[in-house]
Design goal:
alpha/beta, UDP-galactose 4-epimerase, domain 1, 2 domains, three-stranded mixed sheet, 11 helices, 14 strands, binds nicotinamide-adenine-dinucleotide
Length: 333
Amino acid sequence: MLLQSDLATSKPTILVTGGAGYIGAHTVHLLLQRGYEVQVVDNLSRGHRHNVDPARLHVVDLADTEALCGVLARHPCEAVIHFAAYIAVGESTRVPELYFRNNVCGSLSLLTAMLRSGVKRMVFSSTAAVYGMPARVPILEDFPYAPVSPYGESKVMVEKILGWFDSLHGLRSISLRYFNASGAEPGGTIGEEHDPETHLIPLAFRAVETGQPLTLFGDDYPTPDGTCIRDYIHVSDLAEAHILALEHLLAGGGSGAFNVGTGTGHSVREVIAAVDAVTGRKTPWVAGPRREGDPAELVASADKLKRMLHWSPRFTSLRDIVATAWEFESRRR
Ligand SMILES: NC(=O)c1ccc[n+]([C@@H]2O[C@H](COP(=O)([O-])OP(=O)(O)OC[C@H]3O[C@@H](n4cnc5c(N)ncnc54)[C@H](O)[C@@H]3O)[C@@H](O)[C@H]2O)c1
């Protein structure tokens, strides 16, 4: 077991899966800033080569257990931060087999490689989608699992596997259930570049730039302006939560699950107003029908993360979050 005092002097090597993606790349950046050595595994199916220093990138698929063992043999790691997954809820309802294979079988392959290599700590990217349509907000970690998509179900399955691996193999893990990741590290070169893009803020920018209207999925919800309310969490604050979870595990802490959100919700119309204010232009939009399985309001209680891991978000204003995303968007054009 590593003690906090050891962490102050020598920082261990961490394997990051999905480090060529949006949140993974931000976390790699922060890990390096904090003095950790980092190796990245990514198959580049949805991420970007330009997000990772080639010296630390291993282009490997999670399904390839042998190759993962090879990476861990050449680069002994103390822990894994596991981002690699497919993330589009809608796509998961069209091709659920893809999501169960990649997200569940892929995670199992990674866990197998970790056990074979003697690596027994993982921080896992989970999601608010494990709660489905919760009866009330803010959402607490002890609300029941009730996913309404194969994507959410795939994350529940991995959380459950992690529970068994904790009790049967002593593999300690922290599942971080993110709400809506957004923004970009100011002055950085990483940002949201999903393909397909399904997230509101980059889609609103696209509408501003192309003049093609953004579709709002429902404007008749029981919310003050009729549009859905979500909890937008800045990607750098998410990255910080990973470092705190990692350090908890490295110091011998036990397994658990934490929400990562701000505790404040914003409606789709409020996000559009923030995009208008930041870009100085009007976002064209049209109201469309509701999407199946979209709850009216998803807002986290992040009290557990604040209390137990001493996390506090740097970005608490929606406008500031949107401004950092726009800065990235303007730079890459
Ligand atoms: N973006 C959000 O708002 C959000 C919200 C909740 C949870 N999450 C979770 O956070 C994690 C990261 O999300 P993101 O937005 O950075 O996504 P992303 O698509 O930008 O990054 C995922 C990365 O994983 C890689 N990958 C996928 N399958 C792989 C495989 N089989 N082998 C190797 N690499 C593989 C992709 O190439 C990509 O680089 C995901 O697990 C996602 O479910 C994201």
